Amino acid sequence: MKLLKSLYLNNRIFIAIGAIVICFIASFIIDDLIIIPQALFFLFLGLVITDMLLLYRTRRGLAGSRIMADKLSNGDDNEINITLQNSYPFQVKLRIIDEIPHQFQRRDVNFYIDLGAGAQKQFHYYLRPVKRGEYSFGALNVFVSSPLGLLARRFRFSQDKLVPVYPSYLQMRKYELLAISNKLTETGIKKIRRIGHNMEFELIKEYVAGDDYRTINWKATARRRHLMVNHYQDERSQQVYSLIDKGRVMKMPFEGLSLLDYAINASLVISNIAIKKSDKAGILTFQDKIATHVPASRSNNQMGNILEVLYNQKTAYREADFSVVYNFVRRKITQRSLLLLYTNFESVYSMQRQLPYLLNLSRHHLLVVIFFENTEMKSFVEQPAADLRRVYHKAIAEKFIYERKLIVKELTRHGIQALLTTPQNLTVNTINKYLELKSRGLI
C-alpha cells in the first residue's frame, strides 16, 4: 500500500497509452498491422516496469527539508529555504509542491527543477503574512521522475510544522542596526539638529585627541597639570509609551495589513529604538476598557515582554473609550512621559468628541496623536473623472481628505502634537517625530 500511495502517473504515460490505443484501432482496419500495436504494448509494459525499478530500487533516493525561522514576521517577506539531495545514480526531474498555510490563499507554490546524480540544490521563496497568529505548514511534497518520465515517486518532508507569526521583528532588527550604526538617515529618517544644550554632566576625564576643546575644565587642568575635559551625556531614562487603539476604526486594511497591525509593528520598532537611545519603553492597549499594560522599563527582557504582549492583541470591534485611557494614565503613569497614541479619526466631529480627554492627557504628558491617511481614497481622487457620478464621488473623497488636514490643525491649535501619515510610512514617520521631540528637548 505504501508503494501505491507514493506512485503517480505522469502525462507521458497517458500519451503512450493513447498512441497504443490508436494503433490497435488502426489494426482492425489493416489486418497485417496487428503485430505492431502488440509489440508496442509489450515494449510499453517493459518500460513501465523498468521505470518503477529505477525509482524504487534506491530506498531513500531523495532527501529534502524546508528550512525557515521559528517564527514569521508580520507584514514582511519571510524567506523559506528548500534543500534537496539526490541519491539516485542518474539525473532526475523534480516537481516540488509546498503545502503552505491556508491563510496565504496561494496555490502557486510549486517548482520544477532538474537534479544531477548525487547533486544537492537549495532554493528559496518568500511568504508575506498579514495577520498575527499560528500558521500550520503541511508537507513538502517532491515528485521524482526518472529519465523515462512515465512514473513519479512522491517523497514527503517537514510535515505538520506549526509556526507563530509575530509583530514585525525583522523591521525592528533593521532599524535597531541602523540606530546603533547611526545610519537612520539612509532609510529616509531625518537628521534633526539639536537646539540648545540639552546635556547633563557625567564625569571629568583626561583630554584625548578628538575631544571638543570647548569642554576643557580649566580648574581641573590647573590642579592636575594636564588637560582635563568635562564629559557629558544626553538626558536619559525618559518614558516612552505606545498607546494603541484596538477599536473598530483600526481594522481597516491597507495592502492586506490592518491599521492595528501597522500600529503594532511601529510600536515594536519605536520601543526598541527608545531603549537603544537610553529611554524607557512601555505599551498600553485599549478598547472600551484597558486591555494590556506593560510599564515603561529599559531592562534586558523588556523587548521580549513587549513582543509577547503585542503578539496576542486582538480587537472586539468596539468603540474606543478615551475616558478610560485618561483615568488609567493619571493613576498609573505619574512621571511625565511621551505618549504616542495610535488611533484613527474619520471626521472632525469624531476627533472633537475625544478632544477633552486628549487635552487632559496633554496637560500632564507630551501627547502625540498619530492617525492615518486613506491612501486608497487619495489614489481614487487622483484619477480623472469620466462621468458626473464619478465627479460626485471624487468631491466626497476630497472632503474626507480635507477633514484629515483640519483634524491636524485643530489638534495643533490646542497644543497637541499631531502626525498624519500613510500606513506604509508609519514607522519611519514615528521615528522622525520621536527624534525631533528629543532634539528639541521636549522629553
UniProtKB/TrEMBL annotation:
The keyword S-adenosyl-L-methionine does not apply. Signal peptide: none annotated. InterPro entries: DUF58. Coiled coil: none annotated. Keywords: Membrane, Transmembrane, Transmembrane helix. It comes from the Bacteria. Residues 205-369 form the DUF58 domain. The keyword Ligase does not apply. The chain crosses the membrane at residues 12-30, 36-56. PANTHER family: BLL2464 PROTEIN, SLR2013 PROTEIN. This is DUF58 domain-containing protein. It comes from Chryseosolibacter indicus.
